[in-house]
Amino acid sequence: MTSHTLADVKTLIVIPCLNEARTIEGLLTKFSRTLNHPDDRIIVADGGSTDGTPDIVTRFSMRDPRIVLLANPKRIQSAGINLAIEMFGAGYDYLIRIDAHGDYPDDYCQRLLEETMKTSADSVVVAMETVGHGAFQKAAAVAQNSKLGNGGSKHREGGKGHWTDHGHHALMRISAFTSVGGYDETFSHNEDAELDYRLRKAGFRIWMTDRTRMTYYPRSNARALFKQYLAYGRGRAKNLLKHRSLPKVRQMIPLSVMPVALLALLGVFHWVAVVPLCLWIATCLGYGVWMALAQKNPDGPLASLAAMVMHFAWSAGFWLELFGSLRTSTPMATKATT
């Protein structure tokens, strides 16, 4: 493939979505202008939207047959992308995954293709800049862009192009995707990290590009943010259980939040039990004040609260999934030994 030109490669752009009427029209307009090869396609894998998203896609497809609406009965993103590749992937070189809850530069696809052809990478991942509009969404964006919220994650902060073990999925060689079985559809979240683990184990290489990035819009209220990070935590625990892949140090710290909160319940017996929880709260609030003063960011204090929601939900999801799985597997193990 490296000897080919951009005009030679055939690309499937896949947009898994559910109720994204506010963004899907802009995405289809943008990416329909970037298709290189006459056979390039945009597949919108819709998980049963009720807000008019399918109607918008259908109108576009009537004007441009390269745009295809695909029903995704399993609803989740991993299943939608798998189905798109199963139905349309034969004869195509690359998959470009687009998150309907984000925005992208006009030359996004071109940069990704240039990077994979230059590096011979099997997967090209991108950094993700989070942007908000309302008060809480802005705060969540600040938290996710900061070390308090992302722990220094490379796919959040970016940096110079380099080989990596994981990043926000952007482009993937379809032959690599199918050879490892695609996404694991038992993962509603963290499916990208799980797939990256199998790609690397199979000898495929992942390149973090510094030539483009995406913009992501976080959840706009605390409840939705909590549910999202609870699912992220569950996904990380499932990765541990499936592959025995231990969390990184930057992930181990927020994992302690739920145990620390449970420990604080013993504060009725001795005040020392509350100290770790108080230290976590003080650290988060202090970081928010520092952002407000040192970085002159007025959203800093509220961002610290958003980060606390993220930490607690992620930790709770991880431990609930881990202990729930161990509890359900114990009777089977006991029965097998009797």
Provide a descriptive summary of the structure in words:
By secondary structure, the chain is an alpha/beta fold. The chain folds into two domains: 209 residues, Alpha-Beta Complex (Spore Coat Polysaccharide Biosynthesis Protein SpsA, Chain A), CATH 3.90.550.10; 93 residues, no CATH class. Helix content is 53%, strand content 15%. Strands 1, 2, 3, 4, 5, 6, 7, 8 and 9 form a nine-stranded mixed beta sheet that branches. Helix 1 packs parallel to helix 2 and helix 13 packs antiparallel against helix 14. The longest helix has 38 residues. The radius of gyration is 21 Å and the shape is globular.
Query: What is the CATH first-level class name of the largest domain?
Result: Alpha Beta
- Main sheet: strands, sense, barrel: 9 strands, mixed
| Helix amount | 40-55%
- Beta-strand content estimate: 15-25%
CATH topology of the largest domain: Spore Coat Polysaccharide Biosynthesis Protein SpsA, Chain A
- Secondary structure class reads alpha/beta
C-alpha geometry: globular
Calculate the terminal CA-CA distance, rounded to whole Å: 56 Å
From the 3D coordinates, which CATH architecture of the largest domain would you assign?
Alpha-Beta Complex
Average pLDDT over all residues: 90
Continuous helix count: 14
Q: Which residue ranges are poorly predicted, with pLDDT under 50 across at least 5 consecutive positions?
A: 332-338
Order of helices and strands: EHEHEHEEHEHHHEEHHEHHHHH
Gyration radius, rounded: 21 Å
Q: What's the total count of β strands?
A: 9
The structural domain count equals 2
Supply the CATH superfamily name of the largest domain: Spore Coat Polysaccharide Biosynthesis Protein SpsA, Chain A
